[in-house]
Every structure is written in structure tokens, then in C-alpha cells.
Write a structure and sequence with these properties.
Shape: globular
Structural class: alpha+beta
Distance between the termini: 56 Å
Number of domains: 1
Mean pLDDT: 86
Oligomer: single chain
Number of strands: 9
Largest sheet: 5 strands, mixed
Radius of gyration: 17 Å
Strand content: 35-45%
Length: 156
């Protein structure tokens, strides 16, 4: 029994204190995105952020309409402009992706918080749409993650 308690404690400690890393954007681009300027004409702005150290050892994939935009780590965010209308955001979780549908309006910035929660075997993730002021505060606590480069399959 004691071995089981010690093992569980070690696993939880690693889960809570380890630190995953993802490629980061330049400090200049991060600073510019934190000015929260309105999106380009005909677009909506989307900030997806994870402003917590809970589950720092975990990276979680984020997708928009099935397209992976990258992986989050603790205290990171992504910014992307999207077309107005309904879009499905999803995040990798323990057993299947968790999804959030958002109807984006032209010229508006939206803020979605990704959060980690305990799971049966590994931490899960979920998404929530948050009010602008809460979202701005959360983004300011984070650094901009770099989206992966798109590979042009016709060039291969």
C-alpha cells in the first residue's frame, strides 16, 4: 500500500511540475499581438490561450475546423484571424477531442481559454469562450507560440 501511495505521489508531482516546451514566436510579434488591435477587414480575431502551470508537463493540440494550428504548453497562446461565421475549435484531451463551436463576427476579437483537468490516466483539456477583459488578462500572462510551418505537398 505504501509503495502505491509513493508511486501515485511521484506521478502527480511530475504531472504538476514538469515543463513541456513548444516553439515560440519572436518577442516582437508577441508584443504586437498583445496590443489587441482589431482584425483585418472581413475577419475576426481569435486568441486561444493557456494561462496556467497546472499540467505543465503536457502539450495539447489545438485545431480549428480540423486543421491543427499547434500545441499549447503552460502559459502560451495562439492568435489567428478567421472568416466570420461558425467555426469548430477542438483540443486534444484524454480519450477524444473536446470541441467548442463559436459564431465569429466580423471585426471582433474573441478569447478562448484552454484549461487542463485531471484525467484517469493523463490530464485532459477543454476550451471555454471567455469575456474580452478576462481573455486579455489571460493572454498578457502568456507568450505567443509559433504555429508550425505548413508543408507544401506539391513541392515534394
Amino acid at each position: 500500500m505504501l509503495k502505491r501511495v509513493i508511486s501515485t505521489t511521484i506521478i502527480i508531482s511530475i504531472f504538476l511540475t514538469g515543463c513541456a516546451s513548444v516553439p515560440m514566436a519572436s518577442p516582437e510579434v508577441d508584443k504586437a499581438k498583445k496590443e489587441f488591435t482589431p482584425p483585418s477587414d472581413g475577419k475576426a480575431g481569435l486568441y486561444i490561450y493557456r494561462n496556467s502551470n497546472f499540467g505543465a508537463a503536457l502539450k495539447k493540440t489545438i485545431s480549428i475546423d480540423g486543421e491543427v494550428i499547434g500545441e499549447t504548453a503552460a502559459n502560451t497562446y495562439f492568435y489567428r484571424e478567421v472568416s466570420p461565421g461558425a467555426h469548430e475549435l477542438s483540443t486534444e484531451s484524454e480519450f477524444s477531442d473536446n470541441k467548442l463551436s463559436v459564431d465569429f463576427q466580423n471585426g471582433v476579437n474573441y478569447f478562448v481559454r484552454q484549461y487542463i483537468r485531471l484525467g484517469a490516466f493523463v490530464g485532459g483539456a477543454n476550451l471555454e469562450l471567455v469575456p474580452e477583459e478576462k481573455g486579455k488578462k489571460g493572454v498578457l500572462e502568456c507568450k505567443l507560440a509559433q504555429e508550425p510551418l505548413k508543408v507544401n505537398s506539391s513541392a515534394q
